[in-house]
């Protein structure tokens, strides 16, 4: 039997907005399509989200020039309103997102199981870029 140790990667950002707004912008498809991209040449033309244990989500991430797209999705395994979301991606890797309210600021911390295709640094940079886009979008809208 083969066992492989999983590597977890954590990214975080403090959003200058109350947790109610952060939670809504994180979870509502109309908002997800506005912020879920790692760079300006990508976008999320479609999002569907059922935030409850056993619920599923799917976000289509696509190059703006139409050259490539993929669906990012999974199933929720734990949801604590305005505090925590955990899910399994369609490839079986786990993700946990914590929302820590502090008045008009909310710290968002994502921890995810690394995949084996890209380097740890590339994965961290990509997820951090998406989280930074979320922070910028939420603070400016």
TrEMBL record:
<protein>
    <submittedName>
        <fullName>Polyketide cyclase</fullName>
    </submittedName>
</protein>
<comment type="similarity">
    <text>Belongs to the AHA1 family.</text>
</comment>
<dbReference type="InterPro" id="IPR013538">
    <property type="entry name" value="ASHA1/2-like_C"/>
</dbReference>
<dbReference type="InterPro" id="IPR023393">
    <property type="entry name" value="START-like_dom_sf"/>
</dbReference>
<feature type="domain" description="Activator of Hsp90 ATPase homologue 1/2-like C-terminal">
    <location>
        <begin position="16"/>
        <end position="138"/>
    </location>
</feature>
<dbReference type="Pfam" id="PF08327">
    <property type="entry name" value="AHSA1"/>
</dbReference>
